[in-house]
């Protein structure tokens, strides 16, 4: 069920550490010298070489969309159905990143505030900080304790900054159970996910569940139909979450000598999840809470505690390096507040409008794409390779170029490209955003070849029955060809 790699920030929760995303992103950008190559390719040979790679019999049913352009000019080096619509998967995050940088600025931070009224009630107002973790709740609790607060009559969660659906209605049901399809609200905590480890026990016994946060055990009803198998038996664990309640389904098996299996699921009620954890943080600082509740709106005159997210430049690194859907969706909704949001409006819809207007102002043709979310998780998103290359080109020519580039995975070095292109001519000189959905694989970004002009490229494959690994390898072959271009 959860085939996607759990992000580093979620794994840090499991390990009990609270390293910030700033530190993680900087580490991921450590440069590695590119691999050397003796091969070279003239531009006139490029079409024949790429056509040979994508027109093999195993791709006879697949739809390929490819566009390769000189970054600084209008010269097209290769094009194949580049103007047609494709399901882009997480390449849609390139649009969200560009609009967020342009509208909000690299130094923008998201503030979470605590207000106090005359009756001793505390109201926590969230504004959609996707990086908020337990450690930040501890900081808030310490600020309150330092002001002499030892008792709270009512701890109120104001989760109204983002309005409308917590989950995009076009997302598939199997995605919204998983951490990568977690609900998006104003008071996000721990990426609105619960991390659990499944461990073998004695042979024949059900597998054991160990929660990263032990209190999660009291929040879920578990239907455990798993078993511990004989030594060296193949293992497969499936974890599902009920869509209507906090019920967890576990089935499958692990061998008695197998390694633990780490999973993460979306929390069922993110607002109550926030309240529960904040109450625990307050208790740890000696602050008792009589009751908790939720409310929308209120008097924001007396802010007594606050925390801020890392700057946008760091948030987009987590979003693009680890392809974090929650970060993308939160930033899309944050864009909505660049204009007035009416009470009856869906914040995500307003964010999409702001995103399109921003991209149009940058010079991206609005007729080259049609998107319904900020992350690319929806199968209703339609983007052409032409649109993605336009985005890459206009941002490369903007003041935000350096920050934008720093958020992208580096081939063979960081993020979702860390394990790809190693020991090839692409290592260290390709920066690109990956994308994966069932039946949709994408890769778009930049190539800084020492033998040729800088390039912008987009490759999308839809409707293939081949394994994702096979498609990625063919994509990588195309990109490696591009890195071998030289002036002839």
Automatic annotation (TrEMBL):
<keyword id="KW-0121">Carboxypeptidase</keyword>
<keyword id="KW-0378">Hydrolase</keyword>
<dbReference type="GO" id="GO:0000270">
    <property type="term" value="P:peptidoglycan metabolic process"/>
</dbReference>
<dbReference type="InterPro" id="IPR012338">
    <property type="entry name" value="Beta-lactam/transpept-like"/>
</dbReference>
<dbReference type="InterPro" id="IPR000667">
    <property type="entry name" value="Peptidase_S13"/>
</dbReference>
<keyword id="KW-0732">Signal</keyword>
<keyword id="KW-0645">Protease</keyword>
<protein>
    <submittedName>
        <fullName>D-alanyl-D-alanine carboxypeptidase/D-alanyl-D-alanine-endopeptidase</fullName>
    </submittedName>
</protein>
<dbReference type="GO" id="GO:0006508">
    <property type="term" value="P:proteolysis"/>
</dbReference>
<dbReference type="GO" id="GO:0004185">
    <property type="term" value="F:serine-type carboxypeptidase activity"/>
</dbReference>
<comment type="similarity">
    <text>Belongs to the peptidase S13 family.</text>
</comment>
<feature type="signal peptide">
    <location>
        <begin position="1"/>
        <end position="24"/>
    </location>
</feature>
<dbReference type="Pfam" id="PF02113">
    <property type="entry name" value="Peptidase_S13"/>
</dbReference>
């Amino acid at each position: 069920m959860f085939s996607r790699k759990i992000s580093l920030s979620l794994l840090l929760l499991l390990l009990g550490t609270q390293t910030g995303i700033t530190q993680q992103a900087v580490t991921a950008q450590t440069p590695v010298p590119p691999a050397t190559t003796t091969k070279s390719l003239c531009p006139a040979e490029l079409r024949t070489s790429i056509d040979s790679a994508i027109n093999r019999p195993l791709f006879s049913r697949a739809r390929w969309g490819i566009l390769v352009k000189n970054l600084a000019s209008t010269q097209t080096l290769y094009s194949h159905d580049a103007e047609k619509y494709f399901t882009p998967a997480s390449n849609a995050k390139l649009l969200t990143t560009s609009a967020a940088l342009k509208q909000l600025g690299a130094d923008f931070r998201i503030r979470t505030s605590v207000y106090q009224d005359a009756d001793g009630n505390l109201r926590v107002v969230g504004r959609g900080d996707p990086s908020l973790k337990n450690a930040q709740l501890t900081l808030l609790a310490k600020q309150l304790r330092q002001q002499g607060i030892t008792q709270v009559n009512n701890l109120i969660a104001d989760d109204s900054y983002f309005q409308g659906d917590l989950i995009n209605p076009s997302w598939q049901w199997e995605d919204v159970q998983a951490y990568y399809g977690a609900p998006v609200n104003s008071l996000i905590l721990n990426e609105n996910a619960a991390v659990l480890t499944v461990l073998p026990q004695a042979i024949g016994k059900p597998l054991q569940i160990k929660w990263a946060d032990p209190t999660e055990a009291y929040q879920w009803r578990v239907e455990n139909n798993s078993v511990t198998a004989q030594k060296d038996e193949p293992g497969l664990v499936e974890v599902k979450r009920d869509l209507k309640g906090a019920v967890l389904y576990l089935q499958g098996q692990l061998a008695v000598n197998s390694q633990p299996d780490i999973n993460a699921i979306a929390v069922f009620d993110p607002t109550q999840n926030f309240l529960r954890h904040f109450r625990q943080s307050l208790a740890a600082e000696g602050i008792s809470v009589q009751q908790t509740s939720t409310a929308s709106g209120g008097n924001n005159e007396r802010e007594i505690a606050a925390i801020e997210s890392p700057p946008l430049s760091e948030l987009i690194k987590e979003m693009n390096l680890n392809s974090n859907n929650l970060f993308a969706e939160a930033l899309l909704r944050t864009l909505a507040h660049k204009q007035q949001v009416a009470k009856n409006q869906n914040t995500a819809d307003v964010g999409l409008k702001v995103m399109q207007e921003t991209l149009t102002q940058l010079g991206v043709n609005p007729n080259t794409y049609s998107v319904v979310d900020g992350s690319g998780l929806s199968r209703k998103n339609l983007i052409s390779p032409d649109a993605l290359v336009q985005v890459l080109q206009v941002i490369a020519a903007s003041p935000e170029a350096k920050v934008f580039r720093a958020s992208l995975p580096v081939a063979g070095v960081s993020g979702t490209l860390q394990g790809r292109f190693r020991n090839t001519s692409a290592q260290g000189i390709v920066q690109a955003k990956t994308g994966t959905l069932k039946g949709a694989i994408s890769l778009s970004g930049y190539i800084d070849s020492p033998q040729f002009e800088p390039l912008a490229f987009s490759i999308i494959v839809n409707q293939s029955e081949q394994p994702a690994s096979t498609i990625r390898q063919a994509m990588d072959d195309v990109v490696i060809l591009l890195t071998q271009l030289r002036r002839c």
